[in-house]
């Protein structure tokens, strides 16, 4: 195949990148790739510690897609083994380990979700349990001999915990070594990760050299801040936009980001070029609400499609500007005449328990046919005519009697 020129490739590769170690070596690898007509192998690791990906993960996945578009080989590592250790990156205490069953369940949807960005036909999926699970204790001892405790303690989170007399478990030292073995096994040319993964990426580079391999290029990408603008995006913090969020939810969440994050989200979440961002800076500063509407549309379009983005925009206007219900609410049919409202919310999937239903009702978050219900003991009489149930500000349900 024919690869673009080195300058053309670097224009796309360096877009939004924070650090490349080293750019000179990357140029050398690209030259060799062109001269030998051989694609580079690009690695991105993902530990299935949770079942959902969010648009923060989309930043590094997009960089992997950039390499795909240039003709290189994209390798997505599902860290089903390393997830059982727990990545200590950025953690002030030992991270809980998850079970093999949990990693198996979480892994199942990763490729499907990542394919919203990656070209699935050109993506290699590898599970690091295939080689890490085959290692015996002697192999682990030999692996550990390649790195010193002093080098491990250079890692910021380890150093802080050590200085504060906070415990560091030995298995946490093994995490970066285990991840580095992925690079030894794959003999990849480049590894991508967030800025919080820099130490792990460098260990992979060092370990490849220890095993007599050409060391990988380490490329770090920015961490996308969550919806509240204080911490990085995380499902556990409740500040994330997930790949699997419904278009309406995705659109509404995007509108909730703080104004000072709009430009960054255009660059990292909507993948606008520098010139495209420059063209909307005046809109961001003068009419941030309009800029966020444009941003929300672009995010929904990226993870769903243009038609659903337009529908989400129209639904938002209908519900929040004109105070109407969405036009496409599915109707649920139940075999009840009278049903307690708390039970109805559970039946509809609006809440996970009666206690959550009671809390929402007491907080004034439930309306039936546009009438707010404040009595958690209330019952609803179902008829052939659909009743409109509104939960919070964004969720609507219709229900009839069977």
Structure explained in plain terms:
- With 402 residues, this protein is an alpha/beta fold.
- The protein folds into three domains: 6-221, HUPs (Rossmann fold); 247-321, no CATH class; 331-401, Structural Genomics Hypothetical 15.5 Kd Protein In mrcA-pckA Intergenic Region, Chain A (Roll), CATH 3.10.290.10.
- It is built from 18 helices and 13 strands.
- The chain has helices at 6-13, 23-36, 57-69, 100-108, 110-114, 129-132, 137-144, 149-152, 156-163, 170-186, 198-210, 247-254, 262-268, 274-286, 288-303, 306-321, 341-347, 354-362; strands at residues 19-21, 41-46, 73-78, 123-127, 190-194, 217-221, 331-334, 338-340, 366-368, 371-372, 379-381, 387-391, 395-401.
- Strands 1-6-5-2-3-4 form a six-stranded mixed sheet, sandwiched between helices.
- Helix 12 (247-254) packs across helix 16 (306-321), helix 13 (262-268) packs antiparallel against helix 14 and helix 14 crosses helix 15 (288-303).
- The longest helix is centred in the middle third of the chain and has 17 residues, at 170-186.
- The termini are far apart.
